[in-house]
Design brief:
The complex is a heterodimer of chains A (113) and B (114).
Chain A (H helix, E strand, L loop, with lengths): L3 E4 L2 E5 L4 E7 L7 E6 L6 E6 L5 E4 L2 E6 L4 E6 L8 E7 L9 E2 L3 E6 L1
Parallel strand pairs in A: 2-11
Antiparallel strand pairs in A: 1-3, 3-8, 4-5, 4-9, 6-7, 7-8, 9-10, 9-11
Chain B lengths: L4 E3 L2 E4 L5 E6 L6 E7 L5 E8 L2 E4 L8 E4 L6 E5 L8 E8 L8 E2 L3 E5 L1
The chains are: A mainly beta (113), B mainly beta (114).
Chain lengths: 113, 114
């Protein structure tokens, strides 16, 4: 019940295209859903996050779509750039002792010229 | 405002030695989380600490691993009698409050056991 399932495992997108990464969760106690971007040899960097009281959040080229009833959320990267090539992790957390982040398995994104 | 600081960045230990990893949270953050990342895998939760308290250690192996976050100084993750399977990247994250809130990660310590 603590799992967060992420797909696809890897993704190749042309420059200017839209990258879409999907995640699904089971634990209904989760109430915070961040996305992290990680470059090789670096720590995860918080990209964007959403709470279940909204269905969509947009920051620049990055958008999270959230479907509470389906227990799914996704990251859309518009106008994908080669500099976006990285591994993306979705995560979920709850409150109190459940505030630890449960991570998806990651999506390796490659944006080609 | 400095980010989460971890040191050392790289650590090589022989089997049976002790590894000590340090994490200084962001200024004003009193909640610290440790995660482990194996090559080509996601991050796995290990332990959640507040100053002088362990809140959740459900992800910590029962033996050889311990963590602390003293009143003064950085949080320490200690691995005793390291084995090759302990080789991984260890990340620390801090947040200003418990509950579901923003957590910021350090650059990690890459432990190699030879």
């Amino acid at each position: 019940q603590q799992q967060v399932k992420q797909s696809p495992q890897s993704l190749i997108v042309q420059k200017g295209g839209i990258s879409i990464i999907n995640c699904a969760y089971e634990n209904t106690a989760f109430d915070y859903f961040p996305w992290y971007q990680q470059f090789p040899g670096k720590g995860p960097a918080l990209l964007i996050a959403i709470r279940p009281d909204v269905s969509e959040k947009k920051e620049g080229r990055f958008t999270i779509s959230f479907n509470k009833s389906a227990k799914q959320f996704s990251l859309h990267i518009m106008d994908s750039q080669p500099g976006d090539s990285a591994t993306y992790f979705c995560a979920a957390s709850g409150t109190g002792t459940a505030s630890k982040l449960t991570f998806g398995t990651g999506t390796r994104l490659q944006v080609t010229l | 405002n400095a980010g989460v600081m971890q040191n050392p960045r790289h650590l090589v230990r022989r089997r049976g030695q002790e590894a000590r990893l340090r994490c200084s949270p962001m200024k004003g953050h009193s909640h610290v989380y440790w995660y482990r990342q194996l090559p080509e895998e996601g991050l796995k939760f290990m332990v959640y600490l507040q100053k002088e308290n362990i809140i959740d250690e459900s992800g910590m192996p029962k033996e050889r691993f311990s963590a602390e976050f003293p009143k003064e100084g950085p949080s320490i993750l200690r691995i005793q009698q390291v084995v090759r399977g302990d080789s991984a990247a260890y990340f620390c994250a801090s947040s200003p409050q418990g509950g579901s809130s923003e957590a910021f990660f350090g650059q990690g310590t890459r432990l190699t056991v030879v």
